[in-house]
Amino acid sequence: MSPLTSNILAALVTVLVLWGLSRLFKRRGLPYPPGPNRKPLIGNALDFPLVNAAQTYMEWSEKYRSGVLHIEAFGNHVVILNKLEDVDELLERRANNYSDRPVVPIIKLLGWEFNFAMLGHNDEWRLHRKICQQNFRQAAAHKYHPLQIEKVHEMLQNLLERPKEFDDHNKILSISIPLSSMYGYEAKSLDDPCIQAADKSTIPGATLILPGQSFVNIIPALGKIPAWVPFTTSVRVAAEVKYWTEEMKRIPTEYVKSKFAEGKVIPSLVTEMLERKFSDGVTPEEEEAVQNIAYTVYGAASDTTIALTKSFFYLMAKHPEVQKKAQAEIDRLVGAKRLPDFEDRSSGRMPYMEALYRELQRYAAPVPLGLPHAASEDDYYKGYLIPKGASIFPNIWALTHDESRYPDPYTFKPERFLDASGQINDDDRILAFGFGRRVCVGKYVASSTMWLMMVSVLACFDIEKPKDENGNYIEMDDEYEEFGLLRHKGPYECSFTVRSPEARQLILSSGATS
Ligand code: HEM
Fold it and tell me: Which of 48, 79, 165, 401 lies in the 20 to 30 Å Cα band around 102?
């Protein structure tokens, strides 16, 4: 080796050693973000909040005087972001490092490892995301308008015929839009096997994903214990969820294939892919991605829409003054001669309805802790170490109830999104859809389904609190239920009364036109 080469090598080795030492020093030298004290061996294993997790983290954020929190158990690090400035810095500006998903051991037991929302930040995810962008971006999402109109009008008819069953009508609307757009599958009743399978998969599965909800997430080896062993509830539940997840994929896929074989092609994401497969050809990766997207959307779109719609009906019954203002705006623009349409939204002439939509998403975000992102590498922020692999939860609840951004945050007040002249203000960021490269890819589809449902129901019905036998209103409780990642309004009753003979006629004739 020449002296020059050995000098270069020595210099390189020195640089590498110094770099390695500086990283080690940094890692050792910097503390994790604040959080509850860790106990020997188990860390914070007993500290993970099992109920009201988002609200508890928000309280901890006050207690530890830090928007960024850290808890850890058995080497699993969890970081919770409670302030928008931290979410923006890490998940948006440093998206390169924070677009991964954590390895959550229970995911495999649930059979959810191919769920697009759970994929790591890799080429497989990029292909899924690209296909979704092509189909769900703002301009493309218009293609779902006729389907959304048809399904919302069906809901109006169901509410007219069987108003007490509003919860069932919500479920059918929320599941049938993704099922029809993904597979061309028509689900008309709650007995439908696709609705049954989604019921038995999505909520029980979502319940097990949060840290602390299953010991398998903390000690993965526990996942190897057979489901029949006593006291392994989460392993048993996961095995059932896995079965129903397979059914969620199998039933609509077989349906599409049979329709295809009969030559009765109903337009949908999957049929469109199959058509291309037999004409131009598609790669096996693309075929698999479309199948994964279809079943992910069927789960991701339905439960979030069910949760928001449930909150909407409840909030309308609870706040008649808000309902009346929205109805006055609808009556002024639409009148009693037709049902509202998407052009009423794009005209910009319904600022109150727009504010109502934003306030619903703020007040009742269905996924209060968002979906966890993961740190791909060690990162240093505000003097703290965020270790590689840490799960990063954007606490959507804390962001949407941040008093400095939304004064009086626990009051339902659409006016907060209006300016002094009654026009919609520029706070159009729906935090409930998440962040960065993993932001909800279906947000335009979700927004138009929700807006059309809200405006159509308010155009036709008065929603009121239940009454006792003397005709007095019964107060509704404010209880919400949590299913791991998801938050739904607890059971309640309310009444739907058609607003006028004209509204009834419009609903009846919408069946013929939609
Ligand atoms: C009101 C309804 C909805 C809400 C509140 C909602 C909320 C969310 C949230 C919080 C995330 C995680 C974002 C993050 O990681 O930061 C997400 C991801 C996702 N959402 Fe939605 N969503 C809704 C409706 C929909 C609809 C209608 C679709 C499909 C058409 C959809 C498809 C997805 C998919 C595929 C992902 C995963 C994206 C990825 O990991 O790259 N969602 N959604």
Answer: 401
**Which residue minimizes the CA distance to atom 6 of ligand 1?**
433
| 395 Cα to the center of ligand 1, angstroms | 15
Q: How many CB atoms lie within 10 A of CB 376?
A: 15
CA distances from 425 to 263, 357, 421, 443, 454 (A): 50, 13, 10, 20, 20
Query: How far is residue 5 from each of residues 12, 18, 84, measured CA to CA in Å?
Result: 10, 20, 51
User: What's the average model confidence in pLDDT over 338-354?
Assistant: 97
DSSP category for residue 88: I
| pTM (2 d.p.) | 0.91
Q: How far is the CA of 430 from the centre of ligand 1 (A)?
A: 12
Structure ipTM over 0.90, yes or no: yes
First to last CA, the chain: 82
The pLDDT of residue 221 is 62
CB-based contact 222:109 (threshold 8 Å): no
CA of 303 to the centre of ligand 1 (A): 10
Could you tell me which of 306, 172, 185, 188 has the C-alpha nearest to residue 248?
185
Asked whether 325 and 194 are in contact (CB, 8 A), the reply is no
The runs of H, that is alpha helices, within 30-101 are 53-63, 84-87
Whether 16 shows a pLDDT value over 60: the answer reads no
Closest atom of ligand 1 to 436 CA is 16
For atom 19 of ligand 1, the residue with the nearest CA is 440
Could you give the CA distance from residue 85 to residue 394 in angstroms, rounded to a whole number? Answer: 11
Residue 18 neighbours by CB under 8 Å, 6+ apart: none
Residues of the chain with pLDDT > 70: what percent?
90
What integer is the mean pLDDT of 173-196? 91
- At residue 113, the pLDDT reads 86
Q: Where are the alpha helices (DSSP H) in 350-468?
A: 351-363, 396-400, 443-460
Phi, psi (deg, nearest 5) at residue 81:
-105, 120
Whose tokens are 């969890």? That residue is 78
* Residue with the two structure tokens 């069910």: 306
Closest CA to 114 of 251, 249, 292: 292
Q: Which residues pair with 424 in a beta bridge?
A: 418
| Cα dihedral 372, 373, 378, 379 sign | negative
Encode pLDDT of 432-480 as tens digits. 999 999 999 999 999 999 999 999 999 999 999 999 999 999 999 999 9
Between 48 and 503, whose confidence is greater? Answer: 503
Closest residue by CA, ligand 1 atom 17: 440
Pocket (CB within 6 angstroms of ligand 1)? 116-117, 129, 132, 136, 296-297, 300-301, 304-305, 308, 366-367, 370-371, 373, 432-435, 438-442, 445-446, 450
